[in-house]
Design brief:
Elements (H helix, E strand, L loop, with lengths): L4 H19 L21 E5 L5 H7 L8 E5 L20 E8 L13 H13 L8 E4 L3 E4 L2 E10 L6 E8 L15 H6 L8 H21 L9 H8 L6 E6 L3 E10 L5 E5 L6 E3 L3 E4 L4
Parallel strand pairs: 1-2
Antiparallel strand pairs: 2-3, 3-7, 4-5, 5-6, 6-7, 8-9, 8-12, 9-10, 10-11
Helix pairs in contact: 1-5, 3-5, 3-6
Length: 295
């Protein structure tokens, strides 16, 4: 039986958020960050550390002692990384820094792991949509979450050394002002909700929304044996991907570039691009996608 963990959690999440609004505690800081009352029941284990180098690095190092769906949350990261090894830093207490171990008990085909980063990006997009208008939220392939074209969240997936699973780290801009954000084309939940006269939600509320969406999608994916079509994951990812239908520049390893129109996502999770002036599609499995301005 498929379980929608977000729907099961929704009444408690709504009650918790309303209570925080009434007492003025929805400023992005959990009532007790060590407890995470909404997030903890959704995972096998949740640990919080005030500061660390990288939650991904720490969770990978201790993965032998953790089970599937173990989570590590940090109040601050001093060596956070994005794709291609880019540094990712944010002021202490301003963001969500969380990593989750996905190591299914049922063995999946090796190519199934390629869908997990996309699954995480979709989960985060759905979570963000619970706090701001959903129509403004999209995913730039493979898993950057955008709000009206501005980045609010990024995901970094790393394979375990024994190839038994992956650790997925996610960062969410929560409280930053525009001056605190690393690039102009970025935003935060605080900035976006202020447009509607609302303050930023609590860390635990956003994290729980993400974990509930992720667990629902992940459970269906594993139940389907890692089949993205049978589980509905491919269709859901494609539907939420704002890159599809746009002219894009794909910057691939080795400084190779390709410009064309993104037309879909294949059975392996690769984005399909039709290069300008060509009929044959090109599948991109790794790299950065840049959305080009519409003509």
């Amino acid at each position: 039986m498929k379980v929608n963990y977000y729907e099961a959690l929704k009444p408690l999440l709504t009650f918790y958020t309303n209570c925080q609004n009434q007492v003025g505690l929805n400023q992005g800081v959990s009532l007790n960050p060590m407890d995470f009352p909404l997030s903890s029941p959704l995972v096998s284990r949740l640990d919080y550390v005030p500061s660390t180098g990288s939650t991904n690095t720490d969770l990978i190092a201790d993965s032998a002692n953790r089970s599937d769906l173990a989570v590590l949350v940090a109040g601050f990261q001093s060596a956070g990384r994005g794709r291609s090894g880019r540094e990712w830093l944010a002021p202490e207490g301003s963001s969500i820094f969380a990593s989750i171990l996905l190591r299914p008990a049922t063995a999946l085909k090796p190519d199934a792991f390629g869908w997990l980063p996309l699954l995480a990006g979709l989960s985060m997009a759905r979570a963000i949509s619970q706090f701001i208008p959903a129509e403004t939220v999209s995913v730039k392939w493979p898993n950057d979450v955008l709000v009206a074209g501005h980045k609010i969240s990024g995901v970094l997936s790393e394979l375990l050394p024994d190839f038994s699973g992956v650790v997925i780290g996610a960062g969410v801009n929560l409280l930053q002002t525009q001056a605190e954000l690393p690039i102009e084309a970025a935003t935060s939940l605080g900035i976006e909700r202020a447009k509607y006269g609302q303050s930023a939600p609590a860390i635990d509320a956003v994290l729980a929304a993400y974990l509930a969406e992720l667990r629902t999608l992940y459970s269906a994916f594993v139940e389907a044996g890692g089949d993205a079509d049978l589980s509905g994951l491919r269709a859901a990812v494609t539907d939420r991907c704002g890159s599809i239908g746009r002219r894009v520049r794909a910057i691939m390893p080795g400084d190779q570039e390709l410009i064309g129109t993104a037309v879909g996502i294949d059975e392996f999770g690769r984005i399909l691009i039709q290069p300008d002036g060509e009929r044959e599609l090109f599948a991109v499995s790794a790299g950065d996608i840049v959305h080009l301005r519409h003509n």
